[in-house]
Amino acid sequence: MSATANSLGGPLLVCEADAFAHWGGAEHGPGGEPDPACDYGRALSAVDDEETGFIRFGDRGEHKGLLWDMEGEGTAEVALSADGFLLLRSWLPQGGTAAPRRRAAGASPAEETEVGDLELPGGRVVVAWAATGSRENDIGSFADPGERAAALRALARLHPPVPLHLDHVLHVGALLSTEPGTYRVSSGWHEGTRGRSMPAEERHGPPRAAGDDDWSCLWVRFSRRGH
Q1: Which residues of the chain have pLDDT under 50?
Q2: How far is CA 192 from CA 67, 74, 77, 91, 203, in A?
Q3: Tell me, what's the pLDDT at 90?
Q4: CB neighbour burial string for 89-102, b if at least 16 within 10 angstroms, e if fewer
Q5: Any residues with CB less than 8 A from the CB of 159 and at least 6 apart, and which?
Q6: How far is CA 208 from the centre of its chain?
Q7: pTM as predicted
Q8: Contact by Cβ (8 Å): 147, 15
């Protein structure tokens, strides 16, 4: 099963669903800029000049999430596997070619950088644009984090992955179901010989199945330890 998460700029957040209920997202100052003290402002600082970073949040910093900057506005594919899940960014139209997916799936540990560990004790995972606060999502207008967590748990009992939306932006995230546990996080990058952008005749043509279709992509992998 696969899903997508859209960013209009700024990182994606990956965390336990119960933790996401406490995520405040973006709050803006008088000039429209993100308040540096809000969760999203701190997220931007955590990945300043970096691709990935961890962030603590909640009233007492009791929750932890992984931040992934996928280089600006775009869409990340979220794919589940037997031992975890993977977030993939390419600059190609979805369905145009499976080459970036093949490249990320076949990457060796030596081609990736270890980032650290993320605890996902409930196995209910949110991947979402970090600017999105849990109160803004279409899980329901619940003021209390406990009610929002209960709503997310109810959604997780549906057939995941479940897409998450804002009123004005679709697919800002997804709610996944995976095995509870500790996940090793690693990131990878491939600079393809064909670069990032397809020529128009390929972009609007039929899907390409060629195995040597070598495009740039980046990814972050979550692998359950002990599996």
Answers
A1: none
A2: 24, 18, 18, 11, 17
A3: 95
A4: bbbbeeebbebbbe
A5: none
A6: 26
A7: 0.91
A8: no
What confidence score (pLDDT) does residue 11 get? 97
pLDDT per residue over 18-35, tens digit each?
999 999 999 988 888 889
Of 41, 29, 16, 4, the closest CA to residue 131 belongs to: 41
Q: Which residues, including other chains, have CB under 8 Å from residue 1's CB and lie 6 or more apart?
A: 79, 80, 160, 161
Q: How far is CA 124 from the centre of its chain?
A: 14
Residue type, 193: T
pLDDT value at position 140? 53
* Percent of the chain whose pLDDT exceeds 90: 63
Spatial contact of 220 and 196, defined as CB atoms under 8 Å apart: no
For the record, the structure tokens of 49 come out as: 């000049």
Please tell me the number of Cα atoms within 13 Å of 172 on its side-chain side.
21
